[in-house]
Write a structure and sequence with these properties.
Helix content: 10-25%
Protein name: 2-oxoisovalerate dehydrogenase
Organism: Flexistipes sinusarabici
Strand content: 25-35%
Distance between the termini: 51 Å
Shape: elongated
Number of strands: 4
Structural class: alpha+beta
InterPro entries: TTHA1013/TTHA0281-like (IPR035069)
Order of helices and strands: EEEHE
């Protein structure tokens, strides 16, 4: 595997959550920096030495709700 994509979302309780697409990898972080560190650690724990992806892509999804004025 050359690339692994993580879907990043805001955590309602603060910080961020990350889910590896196509893999059972889930992690979180209170800051963007902490999240990136936790993703790297989770990937290293999930894969064997020779199977670790070379690239991790972070796809940040942010839903925003707007009110339409009458």
């Amino acid at each position: 595997m050359k690339e692994l994509i993580f879907q990043i979302e805001d955590d309602p309780e603060g910080g961020f959550t990350a889910r590896g697409l196509g893999e059972s990898i889930f992690t979180d972080g209170n800051s963007w920096k902490e999240l990136k560190t936790n993703i790297k650690d989770a990937v290293k724990c999930h894969f064997d030495e020779g199977e670790i992806p070379k690239v991790i892509r972070l796809h940040y999804v942010k839903d925003e709700v707007m009110e339409v004025a009458s």
